[in-house]
Amino acid sequence: MASNKDPFQFQEFEEAGNLLEANRDAVTISIEDEGIKPEKQPKRAAGYSPGGEDEDPLVSDDKEELLSGQKKSVPFWTFEYYQQYFDIETHHVKERIIGSVRPWPMKNFIHVYLRRNPDLYGPFWICTTLVFAIAISGNISNFLVHLGKPNYKYTPEFRKVTIAATAIFSYAWLVPLALWGVLLWRNNKVMNLVSYSFMEIVCVYGYSLAIYIPAVVLWILPYEWLRWCSIVIALCLSGSVLVMTFWPAVRDDHPKVIIAILSAVVLLNALLAVGCKAYFFSKPEPILQVENTPAAVMIKPTSST
């Protein structure tokens, strides 16, 4: 009679188990099925992050540039070059404006507020605001002076905007350019001088004009003593910021060169303030009214002979 046991049924070999228990130092060989291979992990796609969100490739490129310490340089005539100078937080602009109107002794504006990160956002809007403040205040002042005169007819002078823009932006760009060239020339002569970049100098000059905005608004009032007092205060604050900022760049130079550079900085600043006051807020000339009076005709009597 055939056995009921299945020859292919798995059987436990008790003898082999007993032998292993008796000799625990014996070497055993485990034979695995060669047909079974471990499951391969799925390949990670490019840009895959463990969090499940794909990382922006532009952000990863910026991180790689920052980690490697290399920043892509672009030519100065491109839009990307100037775009970096408008990328600034609002509270940084606020701190720099407050620092420009509250100068402290031995406090360098570049080292304390710029920290090698100049911007053009603040200087651009300060200059633009100052241009419109001068033009509008000049028109209002002229209107108040002639108010009540029967022969006066108000006409807005839009040309003052163009003249003010030319004066302010020329001062904010050409003077820093000249100063940067002089400092660069002196730095080649005297090797241990502190050097500033052109954008840092432009940034300092732009923020130094912030104090003139409230001063110009006060010029609307037709009081000469008030105008001159505001000019003196604005000159002292703005000039102090410029002198204390550029003093480290010239203090190791020849005394005559120091006096010449700092005097030029202060005089050009004063020339801008006094020139704007004299042109836009000058005392108007009195209007001469010509009265039509009949001319007296004198008739001399003729003597008869």
UniProtKB/TrEMBL annotation:
GO cellular component, one term: Golgi membrane
Domain Yip1: 104-273
GO MF: small GTPase binding
GO BP annotations, alphabetical order: vesicle-mediated transport
Record's subcellular location: Golgi apparatus membrane; Golgi apparatus, cis-Golgi network membrane
UniProt xrefs under Pfam families: Yip1
Keyword terms, alphabetized: Membrane, Transmembrane, Transmembrane helix
Family stated for the protein in its record: Belongs to the YIP1 family.
Identification of the protein by name: Protein YIPF
Organism: Xyrichtys novacula (Pearly razorfish)
Classification of source organism: Eukaryota, Metazoa, Chordata, Craniata, Vertebrata
